[in-house]
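Milestone 3.1: sequence recovery, worked example.
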């Protein structure tokens, strides 16, 4: 079968829209990442290969990586599940964390430390965008991620602990609680700040604060150690 060479082709347009919008459908790049998605139970809508499905030039116009591995998988965007169904772990909440690399890294941490899922409040980068998917290193395939409003966290009746340099360096929750991380610049929003118990990380006074992903790594590791 001859490789597609026209930008007007419906498949090319569909993959391009998924890369740009990642709304109903998302894109995963690389043969291993696509194979991992299939092994995790995802059914691809299409698998596009450089020089086979699309011409080299057309494929290169789609890829978002510097050095493409020649495979793009098109998948339906997974539907979120109830984050607060079980209290055997914790829920990570992100309040307007805007950098997709930070969001993807925290999704990976949520998988590494067996969290119940990740709650995304308004203003967060999309974890199913290409950069966030790469930063998650495939963890997005098996982490429950859901968009929620601030009042949803409050009404869940789960205690909320907010990462905040002004808080006390107490132990983080081990289960049945929400661990909240705020925006890279402004921190936790006022609405959630009043509902959260501030928790800090003990460290040297040579630095004022840590990157949100670094803070998440430290607190989630400490939380996991307490289970």
């Amino acid at each position: 079968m001859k490789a597609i060479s026209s930008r007007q082709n419906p498949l090319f347009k569909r993959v391009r829209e998924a890369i740009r919008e990642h709304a109903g459908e998302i894109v995963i790049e690389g043969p291993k990442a696509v194979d991992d998605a299939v092994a995790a139970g995802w059914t691809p809508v299409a698998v596009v290969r450089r020089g086979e499905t699309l011409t080299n030039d057309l494929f290169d116009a789609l890829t978002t990586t510097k050095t493409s591995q020649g495979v793009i998988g098109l998948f339906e965007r997974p539907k979120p599940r109830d984050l607060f169904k079980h209290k055997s772990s914790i829920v990570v909440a992100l309040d307007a964390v805007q950098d997709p690399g930070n969001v993807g890294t925290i999704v990976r941490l949520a998988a590494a430390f067996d969290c119940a899922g990740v709650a995304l409040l308004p203003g967060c980068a999309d974890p199913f965008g290409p950069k966030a998917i790469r930063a998650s290193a495939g963890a997005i395939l098996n982490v429950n991620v859901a968009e929620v409003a601030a009042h949803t966290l409050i009404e869940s009746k789960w205690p909320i602990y907010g990462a905040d340099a002004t808080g006390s360096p107490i132990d983080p929750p081990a289960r049945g609680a929400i661990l909240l991380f705020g925006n890279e610049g402004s921190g936790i929003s006022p609405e959630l700040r009043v509902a959260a118990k501030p928790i800090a990380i003990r460290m040297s006074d040579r630095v004022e604060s840590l990157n949100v992903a670094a803070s998440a790594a430290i607190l989630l590791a400490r939380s996991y150690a307490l289970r």
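The chain has a mean pLDDT of 94. The first strand starts at residue 25 and ends at 29.
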